[in-house]
Amino acid sequence: MSWTNEQMADEVITFFKPYSSVNLGIGMPTVIAERMPADLNVMIHSENGVLGVSGRPKKDSVSPTLINAGKETVQIGPAASFFDSAMSFGMIRGGHIDYCVLGGMEVDVERGLANWMVPGKKITGMGGAMDLVNGSKQVIIMMNHFSKDGTAKLLKKCVLPLTGKEVVDIVVTEMGVFKPTGSSFKALKLAPGVSLGDLKMDSSLLSN
Q1: Which residue range is the domain that position 9 belongs to?
Q2: pLDDT tens for each residue of 97-119
Q3: CB atoms inside a 10 Å sphere around CB 45
Q4: Which of 52, 128, 132, 158 could be a cystine partner for 106, CB 3.0 to 4.6 Å?
Q5: Cα(39)–Cα(27) distance, integer angstroms
Q6: Number of compact structural domains in the chain
Q7: Active-site residue set
Q8: Residues 117-160: pLDDT tens digits?
Q9: The domain that contains 188 carries what CATH number?
Q10: 71-75, 83-87, 158-162, 168-172: which range is least confident on average?
Q11: Sign of the dihedral through C-alpha 14, 16, 17, 18
């Protein structure tokens, strides 16, 4: 039995320390904002210029001008602040973001990440991903374990163009939590009912 997106988000949250800053990538990682415990006092950063995102708005409080980097409407918490892109990327490039959580297409044992383009397909832009993987203190990837053809997205070497080299610290998929070590993926935790065989990975790429 694999984890839901919400359960994956909860696993990611266990890595956050109180009073830290977190950037959430477009797509699956945005679920984390809705699951964040208030007592962690985590400040969620969005590279379009918001610090203090606190999840999705209620119907009676939604504002079309209050959005995250993925153009989704958001809610803000107490003491939230707004600033321009130069300031926002200054925070990222200056090493002031403690964690970033990004989606991924591929991750390899050498901590490489590919998540911004597929050759031959439409490219919408890399966004802030390349800045985030190099500027954040810890990089966590939250993604589906398998591609559309059923193959595992945890690889010996990424095939797609890299977003960053030697940048990934932790990977959370619906199948478990993994740490790339340079030569393999250490399985830190598996979802209930999931075995190593269910991961559909070469055994040489896995370690306990």
Answers
A1: 5-207
A2: 999 999 999 999 999 999 998 88
A3: 27
A4: 158
A5: 25
A6: 1
A7: 47
A8: 888 887 777 778 999 999 999 999 999 999 999 999 999 999 99
A9: 3.40.1080.10
A10: 71-75
A11: negative
One-letter amino acid of 36: M
**Distance from CA of residue 56 to its chain's centroid?**
18
| CB contact set of 39 (below 8 Å; sequence gap of 6+) | 18
The model carries a pTM of: 0.94
Contacts of 32 (CB under 8 A, 6+ apart): 9, 12, 13, 22, 24, 44, 101, 142
